[in-house]
Amino acid sequence: MYILGIETSCDETGVALYHSDKGLIHHSLYSQVAMHNEYGGIVPELASRDHIRKLIPLIDECLHHSQLAKTDIQGIAYTAGPGLIGALLVGAATAKSLAWSLNIPAIGVHHMEGHLLAPMLEEQSPEFPFVALLVSGGHTLLVEVKGIGLYQLLGESLDDAAGEAFDKAAKMLGLAYPGGPLLSKLAVQGQANRFKFPRPMTDRPGLDFSFSGLKTFTMNTLNQTEQTAQDKADVALAFQQATAETLAIKCKRALKQTGLKRLVVAGGVSANTHIRQILTQMVIKESAEIFFPRPEFCTDNGAMIAYAGCQRLLAQQQESLRINARPRWPIDELLQTNEL
User: Fold this and answer.
1) How far is 326 from 78, CA to CA, in rounded Å?
2) CA 152 to chain centre
């Protein structure tokens, strides 16, 4: 069963072809980073227009590379939410139009479910059940995963997501957009232990996160320095260390609370090398296992949507031809959703 996956939730246009038996056939990705860099952040209207411009050519490219025709596609999966409403509508309308013309099913996929299942695309994939840390620019979640669609939300950010905090701290440091990767690169030049940042919400029980205080602490710390290149590198290192250790502390609690010994980490921020090291060290001490998707599948991509959609179509999940897009969509509502 060939499934076409379409991802248009934010500023990256992703397309992939996945086969239920053969696995991932091909995937293509177009990033709008260069366009939005001029504005210092994502402009939703421009993002939507660029998805319109690039989506059909990417689908054609993916089919051509795979030596397949549109008539070979047996199902279409698209990101239905959460995300930017205009961007989501581009993917949803394209998916439903193609599905109608080819007389095949189309299924809306939760964007974070796609990230959660991205490690399943690897040869060494995790077995159920596991704890998942989903950490990106828009979300920071801890989820207990018993199977596909069997999700229990354990904790989430009460304000900024970790990736959003990275980008905002980077902006304070004078770094370009998107700032998260640039902050991590700058942190390599930092002097350890010069600044001690708080580990927010780790001194109280529970698995929720809060990263807004780290932004304020970053600004106050910078204002107390001359803001030399070394000052900025030291602040970047302290910020990154605090974020990584906060995530590790919460993940350790989640493993103990659930009694599980398997951690999956996914989402754009999971590509951060330092965060990977800190989380890996933590699970080794806990005699647990850890799984990451390869870096190209950490950021938004069509492959994860194709895989997630394939599993739902194989389970006979269906939806109507109504174009569906949900800019806000809590992941724990998936169990309650029978018809999208």
Assistant:
1) 12
2) 18
269 vs 259: CA distance, rounded Å: 25
Closest by Cα among 209, 217, 134 to 168: 217
Which two tokens mark 21?
Answer: 């038996």
Amino acid at 304: M
Q: Of 225, 91, 207, 87, nearest to 154 (Cα)?
A: 207
Q: Which residues share a beta bridge with 2?
A: 19
Domains and CATH numbers, the chain: 2-116+298-336 (3.30.420.40), 127-292 (3.30.420.40)
Q: Which residues are annotated as a binding site?
A: 111, 115, 134-138, 167, 180, 272, 300
The annotation places the binding site for substrate at 134-138, 167, 180, 272
pLDDT in tens, the chain (340 residues): 999 999 999 999 999 999 999 999 999 999 999 999 888 889 999 999 999 999 999 999 999 999 999 999 999 999 999 999 999 999 999 999 999 999 999 999 999 999 999 999 998 999 999 999 999 988 999 999 999 889 999 999 999 999 999 999 999 999 998 899 999 999 999 999 999 999 999 999 999 999 999 999 999 999 999 999 999 999 999 999 999 999 999 999 999 999 999 999 999 999 999 999 999 999 999 999 999 999 999 999 999 999 999 999 999 998 998 998 999 998 878 754 443 3
Binding site per annotation, positions for Fe cation: 111, 115, 300
Bridge partners of 133? 142, 265
pTM to 2 decimal places: 0.93
